[in-house]
Amino acid sequence: MRTYKLVMITRTVLLASLLTACSSTPYLDSRFGEAVNMAKAQQTINPEASQDMDPVTGIDGKAAKEGMDRYHESFKTPPSTAGILTIDVLGGGK
Predict the structure, then answer these.
(1) DSSP string spanning the chain?
(2) How do the domains of the chain map onto residue ranges?
(3) What's the mean per-residue pLDDT of the chain?
């Protein structure tokens, strides 16, 4: 009797899991994704920028490389903590 119950429970669970795999996709709102598309459109400054063949004006490559190198070097040494004011609220620091 106990094996019969176990077999029936196993069959029921298996059947239920197989039937859920056949369920249809939920109904999505017809305006689904509209907010994302609107946000992308608002963040695009110039939609035709890829068709502009004029060279970019601004900093030359050598100066840009040196600037980026200095920027990356600034992270190699930790910033000084000498001038930081700390307030001891819990009274643990003596």
Answers:
(1) -HHHHHHHHHHHHHHHHHHHHTPPPPPPPTTTTHHHHHHHHHH-S-TTGGG--SPPPSS-HHHHHHHHHHHHHTTTSPPP-TT-----SSS---
(2) 1-76
(3) 84
